[in-house]
Amino acid sequence: MLQRADFEYGDDSDQTPNMDKSGWGLRLNDDGDKVILRDDRDNVIDVVVYGTSTYSGVGWTGPSVKDVGKGIILERDRNETTGQYEHTDSAADWDDYRIYVIGQSHFPYVTFNFKGNVTVFTSPDSSFKELANAIDNAKESIYLNVYQFHNFYLMDNITNAIKRGVEVRLLLEGAPYRGMGNEGRYIAAQIANAGGEVRFMINDEDRGIHDRYRYNHAKYAILDNKSTIVMSENWKNTGVPVNNTFGNRGWGIVINNLNVTSYFTDVFFEDWKPESKDSFSFTCNHPLYGNKYGCPPLDFVPNRTILTGNYTHPFDSAKITGAFNVSPVLSPDTSLMQTKSIIGIINEAKKSVYVEQFYAHKNWGTIADPKNPFLEAAINASRRGCEVKILLDSSKYTKVCNEEMVEYVNEIAKKEGLNLEAKLIDNEAIGLNKTHNKGVIVDREKVLISSINWGENSARNNREAGVIIENDKVGEFYTNVFLYDWNSSNNQSPTASFTYSPSNPVVNQTITFNASRVAVATTVSIRRDSESFCFL
Fold this sequence. Notes:
Blueprint: E1 6-10, E2 32-38, E3 44-51, E4 72-73, E5 100-101, E6 112-123, H1 127-136, E7 141-146, H2 152-163, E8 167-173, H3 181-194, E9 197-201, E10 219-223, E11 227-231, E12 250-256, H4 258-272, E13 279-281, H5 290-293, E14 318-331, H6 341-347, E15 352-357, H7 373-383, E16 387-392, H8 399-416, E17 420-424, H9 427-430, E18 438-442, E19 446-450, H10 456-460, E20 464-470, H11 472-488
Parallel strand pairs: 7-8, 8-9, 15-16, 16-17
Antiparallel strand pairs: 1-2, 2-3, 4-5, 6-12, 6-14, 7-10, 9-13, 10-11, 11-12, 14-20, 15-18, 18-19, 19-20
């Protein structure tokens, strides 16, 4: 019987120190160390060796655990089917795709089965209408977590909701690519001034603040504790355009189910929690962060120009009633599970896998097997006989690496004679600004709608959110959208079977439209990996 346990730990010197008595507690070397757990009879119970450290003895065989650094937590792997911990006395027990970081959540992968209704929509076609309609019908609360919020018209809907007495909480990324910008700071100020609460997830190493996630990159909203909206798009003028002749291709869904909403509410408040150092409350003239997170300059005037283009917006939103299986997907909690979640549904595909992504990296740089596990799962599905189509963005942000991806996939298809094809979407022919989607359709009945890009940072380091929804009609809707984009990018006439009618009225707003699309030139400075550029 184990009565007590003593730890040994330290570097590779001949004398390994015992538990520190100086008051600092257990201290381990960032570069490499070992921890040996013994019982009161000095028997080795367990061992873990990581980084540059080596160990030869009872309880461990083979090389150390790699990719462990400052702020990383080593957590033993569990079998996804049985729930049992792996125990082979080797690095294999600790080599999960997920990286565990201090402060991150551990939400489980669960599936909610229910009968009810959902509303499916796309950008640019109907995303603004659906979001505005949902906000305008909220009666009690709106909790919104979004990477970037720059749409002044949606801001109007939010501030009007606050005036009606609706509780509003807005969580933003504090350091998005190119910074908050005056637009984001202005919207934060307007919502806070109206009576809403606004917080940022920030990183400030100089003051000992380390954000739990590389980026808070999720895009979801919770309304009245009854409905959840999950999207691939930020609340920007391109992601949720007021005029649907212009904008990004993206997918979204409104799920009306208490259990799904309860799950996302728990996620929201876990990320929101003020007691966490990296959760920072908006303050207009904060003495330390006013210039970064506070109000914009006094002379800032919001540009309410509404961009227009030549996209024909053929897909209206649709309210679908029936039986649904809905599984929330979170990065880094559940996005890289091997038998469930994204990889799981691709591995279970029997007929087809359709992928539409902003970008996909062939290799991920910091794991033992550098191949992209999402991409490899899709390629392996084609080896089992599935039809696999991979459609990637062709905008200036992603074109170079996506062209390399297309070449890589198509070479495999040709060499092995697979029903597999990858290509770049023709945004110009369709009339899209860019393809910002992060979606997957399996067997035309299981659909992933998410903020998760197919790069390592998105899956392992960011806070991301999505859902996998299983329903034939939902699958049909998004399959039609996907094939429209696919065929439009192949010098063919766009084809789709339109079987849905509008479920909500157009939002009544008085807006002056531009006669033509406005092009904006920007100067770019790359700071760190983000969704805005395709890094190799």
